[in-house]
Structures are given as C-alpha cells and as structure tokens.
Amino acid sequence: MARFVVEMVFETEDERLGDARPAHRRYWEDLAVRGVLLGGGLYTDESGGLMLCEAADDRALRRLVDGDPYVRGKLVRSVRIREWHVLVGGLKLPVGRDPEPQQLGFTMGSSADSLISRIENGPRIARAAMVAGRALTAHEHRIAALIVGGKTNREIATQFRVSVRAVELHITSIYRKLGIHRRAQLASALAA
Predict the structure, then answer these.
(1) Domains and CATH numbers, the chain
(2) Who's near 82: CB < 8 A, 6+ residues apart?
C-alpha cells in the first residue's frame, strides 16, 4: 500500500456544490471506514481541499476519486494525486496553531493544518507497533489516535458506524500488539 495526497479544487461558482455536499461527505466517510481515507479537510475559503489516502497504486486511487459525487457531477475544476512518503520525524506545525488531531475521518470544514497533524501522529503509532513486533492495521491506527485524543469507545463507534463491541475488539488487538493492558498506557506506548 502507498500513501497519496489528493488535492481537489472545486468549481466555486457552481450552485450545485451545496446540493452534492452530503453525498460527497458520505462517500469519503465510507472510504475512511474502509481504511482508504486517512484524513482530510477543506481549505479555509472552501475552494478545495486536501486528503491523505492509502491505496495499492495511483490507478486504484484514481478510480475511487472518479467515484466522488463532486467529480461525477463535474463540480471539480482540478484533481491532483501525488504519492507521498512520510519522513522520519514527521511534520512540525507552526507555533500557536491548534490542530485538533482527535478526529481522523473526513470532516467538512477541517483545515489543512488538521490533516498535517493527523499525518504527524501516524508515524509514531506505526513505530510503536513495530517495536512491539506487530504492525497496527490502518483502522487500528485510527482508533489508537482517537483514543489518545480523548474519544470514548461510544464516540469512536459512532464515528465509524460500528458497534461499541467492535471498537472494544479493535482496542484489545491494539493493546496486545503494543504489549499494554490499559487505556492510560496507550499514549506512552505510542510515544516510546
């Protein structure tokens, strides 16, 4: 699997954007649940947005992007897909910014800074799991970040549209892979 940054620029003068927004949002939320969308958000002026995605290759991702209701409705001026590699050390945010890294799904109105924060949090989780000898899945990675961000099991279940029990099973797997036993140990295990 490879990671890609997808940049969309919308036809901002088109009145149909508002009508297609709920379908666009549902489409990307479903891709987030499937592990394709890792994070994303709109530019402040809502003229477009960035998304971090994971796919087998750029053609597979292009097919998914082409299924977006905005793209199908010709409401997008341009789409740019670039393969992206996380470098050791991650990205640093400017001082004074509040990135709110707790929410990992596609959120209409979240900023590019929030996406950068999500990306920055990702490698630490992956490194901690590798130290334990087992890699977290993309979904476990998102759940672990939400837990560290202070979300309850019920809130996580609601976000991913699954049962609380399904979330509990993922948490058990995360704990086993990281060699921990309690929620309070998660942040320090990930920072190790």
Answers:
(1) 2-84 (3.30.70.1060), 122-191 (1.10.10.10)
(2) 4, 5, 7
Tens-digit pLDDT profile for residues 104-147: 333 333 443 444 444 444 444 444 444 444 567 778 878 888 88
User: CA-based Rg of the chain, rounded to a whole angstrom?
Assistant: 17
| Single-letter amino acid, residue 106 | F
What global pTM score does this model have?
0.48
Tell me, what DSSP letter sits at residue 184? G
Rounded to whole angstroms, what are the CA distances from 152 to 8, 71, 125, 161? Answer: 32, 35, 19, 14
In Å, how far are 11, 53, 67, 119, 166 from 74, measured between CA atoms? 8, 21, 11, 29, 37
Q: Under DSSP, is residue 182 helix (H, G, I), strand (E, B) or coil?
A: coil
- Write down the H helix ranges in 95-137: 112-131
